[in-house]
């Protein structure tokens, strides 16, 4: 399974000029659709006097991808889609790219607009700092006190740290691991403890 993705580390902007028009590309990392829409609203306020604020965002991976793009008044297909294609060509997700245009008085035509918005988006993404994010699976381990040593040893071997621990008649411990490694680790816990230690995933990987 895919348990990591490439995105941008922080907000980044670049400006290019084409035939007297200014194109300002702004890329912002986002965790979900609501955040992407909020960042777009922020940028529309920032560039309230612009001719157009076109955008595209992509959130998620594989079969759980959510995306949207808008030409914001430019001719259909000349702005939002080229911006999205730039995101796709850089293999990025969990971000929004807004390209703000200040019209300079020279009409670019359909082909010229498409190339300009693609170039503006490509420029900001090419220069933004990229970062790989891991998708983690939180899990719960329950065991008797006598198995504490073996549980802690297995966690240490994989550089995992307890995130929460409760002591009572037994021990309940929560931690997290890279999602693609969870099942292998769970099988190892069961095998090495001879079934005396239980391990269960908590929620969906994120």
What does this structure look like?
It is a single chain. With 206 residues, the protein is α+β, with helices and mostly antiparallel strands. 31% of the residues lie in helices and 35% in strands. It has five helices and eleven strands, in the order E-E-E-H-E-E-H-E-H-E-E-H-E-E-H-E. The strands form three sheets. The protein has a five-stranded antiparallel β-sheet, with helices on both faces. The protein has a four-stranded antiparallel β-sheet with strand order 9-10-8-11, covered by helices on one side. A hairpin with a 2-residue loop joins strand 2 (12-18) and strand 3 (21-29). It is elongated, with a radius of gyration of 24 Å. The mean pLDDT is 96.
Brief summary of the model shown:
The protein has 206 residues and is an alpha+beta fold. The protein has helices at residues 33-46, 80-89, 109-127, 148-157, 182-192; strands at 4-8, 12-18, 21-29, 52-59, 66-70, 95-102, 130-134, 136-143, 164-167, 171-178, 198-202.
Write the layout of secondary structure elements.
Blueprint: E1 4-8, E2 12-18, E3 21-29, H1 33-46, E4 52-59, E5 66-70, H2 80-89, E6 95-102, H3 109-127, E7 130-134, E8 136-143, H4 148-157, E9 164-167, E10 171-178, H5 182-192, E11 198-202
Antiparallel strand pairs: 1-7, 2-3, 3-6, 4-5, 4-6, 8-10, 8-11, 9-10
Helix pairs in contact: 2-3
